[in-house]
Amino acid sequence: MLKIGGVLCAALAILLAGCGKSSPTSAVATSTARGTLMFNPPVRLASLDAPTLTEDLGETSSGQQLLELAGTPTCGVDVYYIEYWTVGAKGEAASASGALMVPTGTDAPCTGPRPIVLYAHGTAFEKTYNIADIADSSNSAYSESALIAAIFAAQGYIVVAPNYAGYDISNLPYHPYLIGAQQSKDVSDALTAARTALPNTFTPGTSDNGQLFITGYSEGGYVAMATVKAMTAAGETVTASAPMSGPYATEALVDAVFLGSVNIGSTAFTPLFVTAYQEAYGNIYSEPTDIYEPQYAPNMFELLPSNTPIDTLFANGTLPETALFSNSTPVIPGNAQLTALLAVPANPVFAIGFGTPNLITNDERVSYAIDAVTNPDGAVLAPPSVALAATPQNTLRIALKTNDMRDGSFWAPGGPMLMCGGDQDPTVFFSLDAGTMATYWAALPAGLITVLDLNATPTANDPFAPLQVAFQQDIASILATSGEVGVAESYHDTVAPFCTVAARGFFSKF
User: Fold this and answer.
1) What is the CATH number of domain 7-249+407-507?
2) For residue 194, which of 358, 34, 396, 37 has the smallest C-alpha distance?
């Protein structure tokens, strides 16, 4: 759920620093209907040349690593800034923005009818996040923007990448984090706006060939799956999809956290989804102190995304960096088993989530935990069942169930789906999320659902084996230099580029 980072994209900074803006006179839309492109033609923020991109990447070790992973760029890339209208979690009109990346060049894969990749980004804590601002290496979205440009656009895919409502220029005062119904509308609206913009770019000969691929990482993995679910229900065609390391089973994941398996980054993720659900449903709490400790409660409503960097929020005490729960175990009279479940876990990674001062009150944790045990999620407390809680009573759990990808009548993607991640991920639990969805779809025809665990032992003739080997070598290198703590802190981000390349390889088959 953390935003993507890492050395693979750092080498692109020198290439993009000189890119200027190109702003033809645009018509301004008067409608605020969903999917409306506000300014047409959109502003071009960068234009990258394939030979120069290749040459300059080859001059640094990190650039060489990216070239080795992503492949030599076949196409140049033009990056456009799109602004469009969508809706918030309550159906209110909301403005949003994003990137349209168009491959350029005369080679056959770079012009004419091309497939579209709809890409959903990972969790971002800074409100200024703008994935279209590829020329600014100080932009918090820079590494993710550069990654998808190199892996998809430079290989001939048109890329549509929304920033989401609540970020950049959006007028929505909150972000509808992990609200599947809204987020699927948001990215679908970005796609509609991008399709409107495409004929009016500087390469009008590049067009949509009708193939649509949907992918995303972390939060974006969840959003990608929610979008596939929504499009499938609407009878729309998705050629193939590749959700990556997403919290698809939201109820199960948060149940596991409240029962002691505290994920890395939880003190930042929790305010995002609590605020989103409070805005959407209005019943998560009466006062912030119903959930948050008094010293943090006044700052929680609409705290994230923030104009202040997340590290500053930790440093100035606005948020605790790691202590989601108190290390003083709450005692539940007459229930020694549940009291034991709430103790600080022996697992050192999960134990990082306990301390003082902590974010969530013991009262809220106990209330949630009692509900989780009384109304269990099968994936957490009764595997191999993957049944959702039948009648949850805690309002936060009800919201999580509503937004879990298992909620509602049974559904399945209409086209092939790859779920990629790593089973040692301490941020989004791969076996609990991807594994739960794989079990949910176990009766589907073979080949429709593919699960790729980068941490698994590579097997002969598996097309993903080279990625598994390379990923495991990276993790081994981090372990040698930074120890187990370093691996825990960087694992989720390290998975991202490898899964993204896997997604491209998967899409190339269709």
Assistant:
1) 3.40.50.1820
2) 37
